[in-house]
């Protein structure tokens, strides 16, 4: 209910107590049964209108989403993996970093990395938890300019922070991994910056559209099983 509607209701239902000798001014206003009734009706209408406005606002409230950009090899598998993570609302395959120009795999940008742009609800999953999945499930952060069968700088391991807070979280996470020697080999992941270009339509939702493709079955479906097994609290169908 809009405020103007509430005011119209007040005017039409409650009315106004006339002023004058027989009106609602002074001591008479405190004792007139008609004025007391009108005041109660007016108060009730205001309360109901306010309640409806609050309820409507709560129903229409949308979560404030944040964006993460991660590069961990071919974006087919990375996109498909994060689509099964609770709190993730959307995943788009993109070309990140490098510079705009002619040529290159994207036809628009050179020196890029295949990456994913993740829209997530921080009330359900944190940026650090997305990084945890990135390092522990999505790819091998020790491989340099490659992932599995894919070789070349476009398949490098990289994080593209979208703000200072994300950059600090990524730096801290990398420092912990390196100090703990978690993977037994040097971490190749780099923190980078740069623009994004959305990948061609045929690359979007590739795992979902082609679940039986040999590449997907061999390289990416095992990652879904690993996510479900190791982090069931993050898994969604």
Model description:
The relative contact order is 0.15. It is globular and about 70 Å long. The protein is built from nine helices and ten strands. The chain has a six-stranded mixed sheet, with helices on one face. A two-stranded antiparallel sheet has the order 3-4. A two-stranded antiparallel ribbon has the order 6-7. α1 (3-14) packs antiparallel against α3. It is 43% helix and 17% strand.
Task: List its salient traits.
single chain; 237 residues; alpha+beta; Peptide Methionine Sulfoxide Reductase, Chain A; 43% helix
- Nearest-integer average pLDDT: 82
The SSE string, one letter per element, is: HHHEHEEEEHEEEHEEHHH
Uncertain spans? 1-31, 52-59, 102-106
CATH architecture of the largest domain: 2-Layer Sandwich
- List the strand order in the largest sheet: 9-8-1-5-2-10
Topology:
Layout: H1 3-14, H2 27-31, H3 33-60, E1 66-72, H4 75-82, E2 88-96, E3 99-100, E4 109-110, E5 113-120, H5 127-138, E6 146-147, E7 150-151, E8 157-160, H6 164-180, E9 190-191, E10 196-198, H7 206-209, H8 214-219, H9 221-230
Parallel strand pairs: 8-9
Antiparallel strand pairs: 1-5, 1-8, 2-5, 2-10, 3-4, 6-7
Short description:
This protein is of the alpha+beta class. The protein is built from 9 helices and 10 strands.
């Amino acid at each position: 209910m809009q405020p103007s509607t509430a005011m119209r209701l007040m005017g039409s239902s409650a009315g106004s107590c006339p002023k004058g000798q027989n009106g609602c001014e002074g001591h008479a206003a405190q004792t007139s049964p008609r004025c007391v009734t009108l005041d109660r009706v007016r108060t009730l209408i205001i309360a109901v209108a306010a309640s409806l406005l609050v309820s409507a606002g709560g129903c229409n409230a949308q979560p404030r989403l944040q964006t993460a950009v991660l590069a961990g090899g071919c974006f087919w598998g990375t996109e498909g993996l994060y689509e099964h993570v609770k709190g993730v609302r959307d995943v788009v395959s993109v070309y990140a970093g490098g510079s705009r120009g002619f040529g290159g795999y994207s036809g628009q940008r050179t020196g890029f990395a295949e990456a994913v742009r993740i829209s997530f609800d921080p009330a359900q999953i944190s940026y650090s938890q997305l990084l945890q999945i990135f390092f522990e499930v999505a790819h091998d952060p020790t491989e340099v300019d490659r992932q599995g069968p894919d070789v070349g700088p476009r398949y490098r391991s990289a994080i593209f922070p979208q703000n200072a807070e994300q950059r600090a979280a990524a730096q801290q996470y990398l420092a912990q991994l390196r100090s703990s020697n978690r993977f037994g080999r040097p971490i190749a992941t780099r923190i980078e910056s740069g623009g994004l270009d959305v990948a061609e339509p045929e690359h979007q939702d590739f795992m979902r559209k082609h679940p039986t493709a040999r590449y997907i079955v061999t390289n990416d479906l095992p990652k879904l099983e690993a996510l479900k097994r190791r982090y069931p609290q993050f898994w969604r169908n």
